[in-house]
Amino acid sequence: MNIQVYQSFLTVVQCRSFTQAAKYLNFTQPTISNHINALEEEYGVILFTRDGKNVYLTQAGKNFVPIAQQLMADYQKSQEVMRQFQKKNYSLKIGVSTQGINFYLLPVLLKLKKEFPELDIEVNRCMTVESTINDAFVQKLYDFAFVHIDVQPLYTKRVQLWNQPMVFVASKELYEQMGENNNIYDYPFISYPASEVYYKHLKSKVDFTRLQSILTFSDSESVLMAVEQNLGIALIPRVKVRKELEQGTLVEFPVKYSGNMPISVLYDYEFNFTLPTKRFLELLKESQEKIKG
Fold it and tell me: Does the keyword Ribonucleoprotein apply (predicted)?
């Protein structure tokens, strides 16, 4: 039953008139009549007797007054309690250990923002997995930490979300210069300094000691720029170069050199979920299932 019908009932009681109640509530008189009829049909009683313009409460109506007053009081109390939560400025702070995670994360955040337009979302790229974990669980800077290796600190919960394909790529120009050679060991190699993080999942497939490293960069943007300038090949998340591969400006080497890097989300075991952060975790799991499907 709509709470408004109880307000209409109490206003008629106060004004002793359907017409005056309608004016007070800025309704039409038929609307007030419909509200009272709805109550009478709901409870199977007559609440008012009418004698011309005069309106009188029946015994059922008199007994219903304190009930309606309590219902209105409870409703107003619920509004006050919920309003306290509405006034809060909810935020979502995220730390990511590698920029490639954002390609998977962004669609989830866009959906979340549509559902919670006032939600303040902040995503920070950390330099290493270790710094991501430290900032999230020691410094308490983030609500969620996204990492790209299998790691789970004490007193945290971990949900593995996506497997990020890592592929070796070369510019089309360099690939043609090398006679479309598919042997990665014949190419100059653009590397990262933290090989134990970026390459650990390919150690069974690739002998990194045989690669001819000519340049080392700490970030994937610089590595990709070097590849696009025909300086060498590099190991890149496929999602980061999907457009270039489709356009043919970059060439992907055979799958025997490729591998998957797991991406997981970590959060404190005793994390105090709000409605937006709870929904965020639900959307992450939905995204996981969608990608698997």
Answer: no
